[in-house]
Amino acid sequence: MYTIGEVAHLLGISTHTLRYYEKEKIIIPDRTESGDRRYNDSHIRWLQFVIKLKETQMPISKIKQYASLFLEGEHTTIARLTLLEEHKRYIEQQIKMLIDVDDMLERKIVAYKDSISNRAAKAQVD
Questions:
Q1: Start and end of every HTH merR-type domain (predicted)?
Q2: What average pLDDT score do residues 62-79 get?
Q3: CB distance 44 to 11 below 8 Å
Q4: Cβ atoms of residues 27 and 43 within 8 Å
Q5: Is-contact 37 31, C-beta < 8 A?
Q6: How many CA atoms lie within 13 A of 68 on its CB side?
Q7: Is 31 in a helix, a strand, or coil?
Q8: What residues have CB less than 8 Å from 47, skipping those under 6 apart?
Q9: pTM of this prediction?
Q10: Among 34, 25, 90, 15, which Cα is nearest to 60's?
Q11: 108 CB neighbour count, 10 Å cutoff
């Protein structure tokens, strides 16, 4: 079992973020008799997944929806699948857009390098 500070350090997030996720019912940590939060390996894996969803621009509202569906049980499997498939399509669109931008940038960089090289060669001739 991990404390909130240990989990924050392990995952590279703040304790404030963990408390926020708890407030939003994205995670429900265990509690000691004195009320301290305790996280197990399952919580850690779930939080790693949540962090990846956030990093890929899934809105908190969708993450909350997914977490809520998960807590409702197996009868929500199709809804969870649909939510994840929609997010995957979004990520695939972002990847395509980034590849297109990368290609455009590469062409610009090559053009600038060629221009600089041509000017330098011309300057040596003059």
A1: 1-69
A2: 96
A3: yes
A4: yes
A5: yes
A6: 11
A7: strand
A8: 7, 11, 13, 18, 21, 27, 39
A9: 0.79
A10: 25
A11: 10
Using DSSP bridges, classify how beta strands 37-38 and 30-31 pair: parallel, antiparallel or unpaired: antiparallel
CB atoms within 10 A of CB 7: 21
Residue 7 has pLDDT above 80, yes or no: yes
- Residue closest to 41 by CA, chosen among 2, 79, 83, 69: 2
Residue 88 DSSP class: H
Q: Which fold has domain 4-125?
A: Multidrug-efflux Transporter Regulator; Chain: A; Domain 2 (1.10.1660)
Judge whether 44 and 10 are in contact, CB under 8 Å. Answer: yes
Assess whether pLDDT exceeds 90 at residue 85: yes
Which of these, 77, 40, 82, 55, lies nearest to 27 by C-alpha position? Answer: 40
Q: How far are the Cα atoms of 5, 33, 84, 105, 111 from residue 98, in angstroms, in the given order?
A: 36, 49, 21, 10, 20
Tokens representing 82?
A: 């649909």
In total, the chain counts a number of residues equal to: 126
